[in-house]
Design brief:
Order of helices and strands: HHHHHHHHHHHHH
Number of helices: 13
Number of strands: 0
Structural class: mainly alpha
Low-confidence stretches: 312-359
Oligomer: single chain
Distance between the termini: 38 Å
Strand content: under 5%
Length: 359
């Protein structure tokens, strides 16, 4: 149990540290150095991530595990589309409405997990999430300007993001693959869709051409640094969702928002008001309550069902990089069990693809 908890704590810390670092790096790159091509930059992140994992696999740092190609392609394309839709949502909406879009991901994830995965959330956990969302809303949401296209893009972004994160958790558990193995298999598809669509999306949003941009040495250095940090961001994202849950990952994401606001004030001298301070404090209270209630619920479940404790023990022996392979026919059987779940969201894939491919 202790080694499993250490693994979870390590994944959470790596996710927070790497995400805050890349936000500060990208903010300097885009705001101070004038490199606005976020979607294209994300495709470079994924290419570097795949190359790093490929090198690690060749050095036997983890064992590659084949996953059904249809599952991996749908999963990779969905994640790529969700990133692009979030970028388009930011382009068509005010910053305040974009922040509301991100806040809506948690309740929508809870709804999807309740309806499709029959997961139960206690009233205390729901209350703590409400406190958290209220705090982040106070701290980060300013203006709310609505328009039809922006609202549609935001709804599609919420749906694809929630489904993608739920599938990240579901695939790892049902197919018995590690976060590293899943990221290694899906990164090429995410990178491909963003690499092809990124320049068009960025040109549409910024009216600038990424290929005509004059790359100075300092811009190139920040791009390389951003790509290096992104390896940790992508790896820790899959690891956190696999070891915890999509809702916990979103809660962690709002902790990052509070930290970014604080670091932006201290390091980049961004404006900071009493409203930001109150919002951050309320959000931290909500995170604390969520963590406490989750621990209490887990203890109750383990005491009520001793088999859960043995499952946790099995996870103790799971290395962070890689998982032991089971027999091929077992993996195929599990994959087939997952495909109906993927198919139920094909409509979301199709609609998202029509409205854009992207970051």
């Amino acid at each position: 149990m202790s080694s499993f908890r250490l693994g979870v704590i390590g994944a959470l810390f790596l996710s927070v540290a790497s995400s805050v670092s890349i936000v500060i790096c990208n903010k300097a790159l885009m705001s101070n150095l004038g490199f606005p091509f976020a979607t294209t930059l994300t495709s470079w992140h994924l290419i570097v991530t795949f190359c790093t994992l490929h090198a690690a696999q060749r050095f036997h740092l983890f064992e590659s595990k084949s996953i059904d190609m249809k599952t991996v392609m749908l999963f990779g394309i969905l994640n790529g589309v969700s990133i692009g839709l979030l970028n388009l949502s930011l382009g068509f909406n005010s910053i305040g409405f974009y922040q509301m879009t991100k806040l809506a991901i948690i309740p929508f994830t809870v709804l999807l997990e309740t309806l499709f995965l029959k997961k139960q959330f206690s009233q205390k956990i729901k209350l703590s999430l409400l406190v958290l969302l209220g705090g982040v809303g106070i701290a980060s949401v300013t203006d709310l300007q609505l328009n039809f296209v922006g609202t549609v893009l935001s709804l599609l972004a919420i749906m694809t993001t929630c489904v993608g994160q739920i599938l990240t958790n579901t695939i790892q558990k049902r197919l018995n693959v590690s976060s590293t193995q899943l990221l290694y298999q899906s990164a090429p598809f995410q990178a491909a869709i963003l690499f092809v669509s990124g320049p068009f999306v960025d040109h549409f949003l910024t009216k600038k051409n990424v290929f005509a941009y004059k790359y100075s040495s300092i811009v190139s250095a920040f791009i390389i640094l951003s790509c290096i940090i992104s390896v940790s961001v992508n790896f820790s994202t899959f690891m956190v969702i696999g070891k915890t849950s999509p809702v916990t990952y979103q809660v962690l994401g709002h902790l990052k928002t509070c930290l970014v606001l604080a670091f932006g004030y201290t390091l980049l001298h961004d404006p900071f008001t009493i409203r930001n301070i109150i919002g951050i404090l309320v959000a931290i209270l909500g995170m604390g309550l969520y963590s406490y209630f989750c621990v209490q619920d887990n203890k109750k479940k383990q005491s009520a069902d001793p088999s859960l404790a043995s499952q946790m023990k099995d996870k103790e022996n799971t290395p962070i990089l890689g998982m032991p392979d089971k027999e091929a026919h077992e993996a195929k059987k599990s994959t087939k069990a997952l495909l109906p779940f993927c198919s139920s969201f094909k409509l979301v894939h199709y609609i998202s693809a029509l409205h854009l491919r992207t970051l």
